[in-house]
Amino acid sequence: MDDIAVTVNGRRRPLAGVQPQTNALDWLRQTGLTGSKEGCAEGECGACAMLIATPSDDGGTMWTAVNACLVPAAALDGQEIVTAEGLGTPEAMHPVQQELAAAGGSQCGYCTPGFACSMAAEYYRSSRVAEVSPESGDSDGWTGPNGFDLHAISGNLCRCTGYRPIRDAAFALGAPEGDDPLAARRAEPAPAPSHTRLETDVGRFIRPATLDAALAELAAHPDAVLVAGATDWGVDVNLRGRRADTVIAIDQLPELRAISISDDLIELGAGLTLSEVEHRLDGGVPLLAELFPRFASPLIRNRATIGGNLGTASPIGDTSPALLALGASVVLVSESGEREVDLADYFTGYRTTVRSADEIIRAVRIPRPLAPLTAFHKIAKRRFDDISSVAIAFALTLDDGEVTTARIGVGGAAATPLRANATEEALVGRPWTLETVRAAASVLGSEGTPMSDQRASSEYRAVMMQRSLVRLYRSTAPERAEVPA
Amino acid sequence: MTELAERPIDPVVGLHMPHESAAFHATGAAVYTDDVAATTPGVLTAWPVQSAQTHARVSLDVAPAYEVPGVVRVLTADDVPGINDAGIKHDEPLFPSEAMYHGHALAWVLGETAEAARLGAAAVVVTYEPLPSVVAVTEAIEAGSFQGATRTVHRGDPERALAEAPHVFEGVTQMGGQEHFYLETHAALAIVDTEGQVFVQSSTQHPTETQEIIAHVLDIPSNGVTVQCLRMGGGFGGKEMQPHGFAAIAALGAVLTSRPVRLRLTRQQDMIMTGKRHPFHATWKAGFDDDGRILALEATLTSDGGWSLDLSDPVLGRALCHIDNAYWIPNVLAQGRIALTNKTSQTAFRGFGGPQGMLVIEDILGRVAPLLGIDPAELRRRNFYEPGQLTPYGQEVRHPERLETIWTQLRARSDFDARRTQIAEFNARHDDVKRALAITPVKFGISFNFTAFNQAGALVHVYKDGSVLINHGGTEMGQGLHTKMLQVAATALGVPLASVRLAPTRTDKVPNTSATAASSSSDLNGGAVKDACQQITRRLADVAARLLDADPRDIRFSHGKVTAITQPDRAVAFDELTGIAYHERVQLWAAGFYRTEGIHWDQEAMRGEPFKYFAYGAAATEVEVDGDTGTSRLRRVDIVHDVGDTLSPLIDLGQIEGGYVQGVGWLTLEDLRWDESDGPGRGRLITPSASTYKLPSLSEMPEVFNVSLLEGAAEDGAVYGSKAVGEPPLMLAFSAREALREAIAAFGPPGHSVVLASPATPEAVFWAIEEAERAREAAEVAEVDATGAASSGDEAGPTDAAASESPPPGPVLAPLARHRR
Questions:
Q1: Fewer CB near the last or first residue (10 Å), C or N of chain B?
Q2: Taking CA atoms, what residue in B is nearest to A28?
Q3: Which of A45, A116, A457 sits opposite B690 (nearest CB)?
Q4: Of B207, B209, B191, whose CA–CA distance to B199 is shortest?
Q5: What is the per-residue burial (b if ≥16 Cβ within 10 Å, else e) of A157-183?
Q6: How high does pLDDT run on average in chain A?
Q7: What Å distances lie between residue B281 and A473, B247, B314, CA to CA?
Q8: Cβ separation A485–B816 shorter than 8 A
Q9: In the prediction, which pLDDT does A135 show?
Q10: pLDDT tens digits, residue range B696-722?
Q11: Around Cβ B465, how many Cβ atoms within 10 Å?
Q12: What angle do CA B162, B798, B667 make, to 5 degrees?
């Protein structure tokens, strides 16, 4: 347990004095790498962003930006990370740092190292440069002429600049030079997962090698907290002072990282991050493709797993409504075997589910064929990097102008994510007309028991649900765009 | 041109410079207060014991904390050798016996680690004797819960003018506060050095006051305390008064334990414990003539001060002094008072009450324009100040013609009229999405209202090798003050920028400083730096004159060369001259001082000339609003702003853009909510984190953002002809709020007056659209019924002089309440 270590900015450093609850940010700062800052300690601001070496499709490495405040330091055992200090120095700045500095991209400077790391991840994205063309850059300004996708920095908050100079810095970046060591590093494989066992007088952090080993640990420590990306657990630790005797990390279990697509089923390993699922599906599930860009920020999606989002069972987690609409099921595994639970039957109450303490979510299954008409409507204050006031996911089949199947998932309307069963009934077997939609919309507006909180009033949530179906209808009938709401 | 404002040929001021620390920021090498603590051996961490009740007498049992491993000391009121007060008004006990708000720090635990201190704080047993609480500002008004003085700005005979005005409107305007959300939370690190000096690093905008409060808490003179501020990760006013108590806790802990003590608030602690922009409640009555000229305004402003006064009094004063914004109002009665509520003690925030005062008049103009049948852009312009007119508090408005110039330039540069036409066409084609383009002006007074604060000092050292080290009393929070001061020093000494270094702000270098606040730090500290540099160049000129056989008055310093204008081909290098001067026993360093001339203010009468000058600007913002959700986008923003003759264009551009976006956050997104119910959570801040309180992110950035600086705008009364820039641009964001209002109106019938909450969140916008659509339906029905009779909406007709526009039931901030039928 004393030999756990991580490579930081090219130098191997022992993870000395680390406790199971110590996050990577606090540990980095203790080692003197104080360029990483704590702005919120809940993964909202990106001031602690760092780069971590993760496997790429071609067997090499990609530099992935994550929030250091939410990563348990022990989870870095055997990994390679880079901080702003590792990108460059004041005397020899990295290109992203040069551009940020020259463009007026820093004022108080506190968010800047985090921006530099998020920008560097996008700078090194191997498919970015391939996209460059004189005409590249999308119409709404989110992709630069250099192929830089601004979404890459949408999880970083700046209170000073108003972002325009940061955008200009990002769009001014060229391609990595031939002798760039971080670019060169991409050709080599990423570090393999370590099988970590850290025990201290306050608790233990275990990263088992296999699913069987994980299940055995779970059986031995029934109160253990299972973590994958730790993007929810990390918030509990940092903000709510929660601690666990035993933390079991399952995100690197090979059994949880598979993806398979057959004619009648898509199976997603629960340990895949949302970014990995997005990348691997490559638009193959349009509803999820619409969802992912609206889910938190890349800094979160690069760590948060699809299984984790169901494991925390938050009523405002955005994958749940989408997966409900897709008719997904959850594969739960324990030492006594495997079972499959329809997601609609999975949630039992506020952050509670049918999963028993000895079970791990192994995979999520989405039946095929997919319904042809899908949409994901997220209502939030901010367009990006926000939590839903209410989220509605639709999956409908229309046949000859009639609704033949309908599944609607709703988040933010009750203590659990829910299926809008009554609304579905009001649609199925009826013609897809404004009359049907209006009648069903008023049903949808009364589904669940939305509450009033700091994000939205219950009335607004209900009206947004109601309007959502009308919006979907309008999108299918553009010639009838003048439909009154 | 005054000597202060005059620029030499080829100055370093005015050059396009990145922030002096930019390379350090980007590489993580820039050090902030808690970064020092992270690498300080043996440092203890301080953690607060916070009140779990909103208002209660409290008693503490700290013994259980000592059972927690790693707890070293619990600090309580008994430990204070001096005055138990975190402020200067004796109303902010550092260790209170009465919890005044939910989360109020009652005691502090020092631990070997943050974990130990946190667990120790949790172990302290607090016994509460609950007291009644006042949470909402409306509750305070009803209960008569006020603090501090009331203030009145009065001119003319508004009562009579309103009685005679052809059009009179009245209403209520309520606006939310704003969390500073500086990315770096409050932080302090204290040590007692080998000589017994208490040395405190603090993230503070006001090192001198931090020093004074530490001194009175410790009962030692100011010369026993040194406060240093390396730099801040943002301040925005939130670190003007609020850091003192935290620094005093760290200092007290260091004295009592003889170990370094660090205190850094977590984001939640910072949001729950520290003051914010004041929410305001305003009732108003305004009279207009048939051409839309304002005849009179009566208004009562109630600021929500929170549990103690802090800076509420001067904030209220500035609000009252800005209720006119850019407009001539002949008859005014503006009264102000400060509510005492059981919430965080609200404090300075960029604009310092100015934005709240200006929002009242802009809200009035935005609401009445449709009722008067006048385009809001024209209504605003028609009421601009003209030369010779005075503000309601009696100060002549100098350069009001700049408003007209800026307005005209902005309309042209933003292609205002053509885009308005395009927008009308777009809106005619779209029922579900509407656009609007609105333009609003800013006039903002520069100087501290409190006259004594308008002074500054600087210390400039020239070493024998010609290198220069400057210190001044201002602090760096990202606004680029240090960059500007380097440029001022390089200009005044005539040396390359590279030969000037700036050392961190410390109270043992420059004493008795004013807060870095009120946008005035470049004016004040720039004046002091320039004064110090000129003392040195005057002495050096004598030496150079002898070397160059010239008259000292003919000596010029520029870019490291010293010449006489009479002999341009002969020169002596600056770094050579300094060596020679040293050997001639000439003093190569100087202390500079500056005081703003020609200002005075009678706080009781609220009359005088408190401002050295006014900063002007205007913005034109186009928004698109989605009728289904109330969400909106900033499609394009154009700004023309008056920064005088810029000291540093990149810095000024950053202040303008950043201020605008921060203002948009205040007005459209950032929604502070306290639990105002009678439930168990009453008084709790329910938006205490980044996940519940949303500031603008990249997705709120204007898609097109064009900023230009007004040209030919040198200001005679400030250093090198420049003007302050920190605060005024925040108020350019009113154009976004007014554009939202006009876009919402486009969902309604012609002439529909939109009542809009502040912040105009997507939900608030949505309900305003619903109301507009209801009005349209009602108007259509009425039109059918009346078969061609004069249209009559549900608003009071503009020709009905006696009738008032009836305010909506309840405060304007409560569309939710109104919606709950």
A1: C
A2: B38
A3: A45
A4: B191
A5: bbbbbbbbbbbbbbbbbebbeeeeebb
A6: 94
A7: 42, 33, 17
A8: no
A9: 57
A10: 999 999 999 999 999 999 999 999 999
A11: 12
A12: 80
Q: Would you please indicate which residues of B are annotated as catalytic (active-site) residues? A: 727
Say if B777 is an interface residue toward chain A (CB within 8 Å): no
Q: Determine whether B5 is exposed, middle or buried from the number of CB atoms within 10 Å of its CB (0-12, 13-18, 19+).
A: middle
What pLDDT, on the 0 to 100 scale, is given for residue B785? 77
- As a whole number of angstroms, the distance between CA B273 and CA B267 comes to 10
Name which of B19, B182, B627 is nearest A159 (Cβ-Cβ). Answer: B182
Residue from B306, B291, B289, B364 nearest B334 by CA: B364
Structural domains for chain A: 5-185 (3.10.20.30), 197-252 (3.30.43.10), 372-485 (3.30.390.50)
Does the pTM surpass 0.90? The reply is: yes
SS (H, E, C) chain A: CCCCEEEECCEEEECCCCCCCCEHHHHHHHCCCCCCCCCCCCCCCCCCEEEEEEECCCCCEEEEEEEHHHCEHHHHCCCEEECHHHHCCCCCCCHHHHHHHHCCCCCCCCCHHHHHHHHHHHHCCHHHHHCCCCCCCCCCCCECCCCCEHHHHCCCCCCCCCCHHHHHHHHCCCCCCCCCHHHHHCCCCCCCCCCCEEEECCEEEECCCCHHHHHHHHHHCCCCEEECCCCCHHHHHHHHCCCCCEEEECCCCHHHCCEEECCCEEEEECCCEHHHHHHHHCCCCHHHHHHHHHCCCHHHHCCCEHHHHHHHCCCCCCHHHHHHHCCCEEEEEECCEEEEEEHHHHEEECCEECCCCCCEEEEEEEECCCCCEEEEEEECCCCCCCCCCEEEEEEEEEECCEEEEEEEEEECCCCCCEECHHHHHHHCCCECCHHHHHHHHHHHCCCCCCCCCCCCCHHHHHHHHHHHHHHHHHHHCHHHCCCCC
Contact residues on chain A for B267, CB-CB shorter than 8 A: 38-42
Residue B662: count of CB within 10 angstroms of its CB: 27
Nearest to A97 among B26, B232, B816 (CB): B26
Q: What would the mean pLDDT of B753-777 be, rounded to a whole number?
A: 97
Residue B678 has phi, psi (to 5 degrees) of -95, 10
The per-residue b/e assignment along B59-83, b for 16 or more CB within 10 angstroms, e otherwise, is ebebeebeebebbbbbbbeebbebb
Q: Would you say B697 and A154 are in contact if contact means Cβ atoms under 8 Å apart? A: yes
Q: What is the ipTM of this complex?
A: 0.96
Average of per-residue pLDDT across B176-204 = 98
